[in-house]
Design a protein that fits this description.
The protein is an alpha+beta fold. The protein has one domain. Helix content is about 25%, strand content about 40%. It is built from two helices and nine strands, in the order αβββββββββα. Strands 1, 3, 4, 5, 6, 8 and 9 form a seven-stranded antiparallel beta sheet that branches. Strands 2-7 form a two-stranded antiparallel ribbon. Strand 3 (about 45-50) and strand 4 (about 55-60) form a beta hairpin. The longest helix is centred in the first third of the chain and has 18 residues, at about 1-20.
Length: about 130
Amino acid sequence: MLKVFSVFVLLMMVMSCATTPSALPEKYNLDNDLEAVEQIYTFTVSSWEQVDIQSVILRANVSDYYLLVLRRPLDTMISSLSIGISSTVSSITSSYDRIFVKDYAGIQYYVIEKIYKLKGKEQAKEIKERLRKN
């Protein structure tokens, strides 16, 4: 009985380590510089632009820009791939909704860890340059 319990405890410890989310790199901690939002409501996606391996800029509702920071890095660059949102309602919620990237190997899903509202096209350009430098 003691051996079985010991094996069970060991398995639980290994599983908890494997499922513990890793922290985002420091460069994505933009809470002091940008307005973090939990949700984007009623959106029409106009365009996507990949910033770096773990973030994209979404242009929604014609003139609204958002920085989406993903929980994990993308497996490939988005440039020529299909990208979308796996949301069933007309909103995107951080830490819940995912973007998907469709490539030759299939569909990959990425949880949106943080959403930051940007103040227009110029700020989107500045943030893109800043994140690409780091």
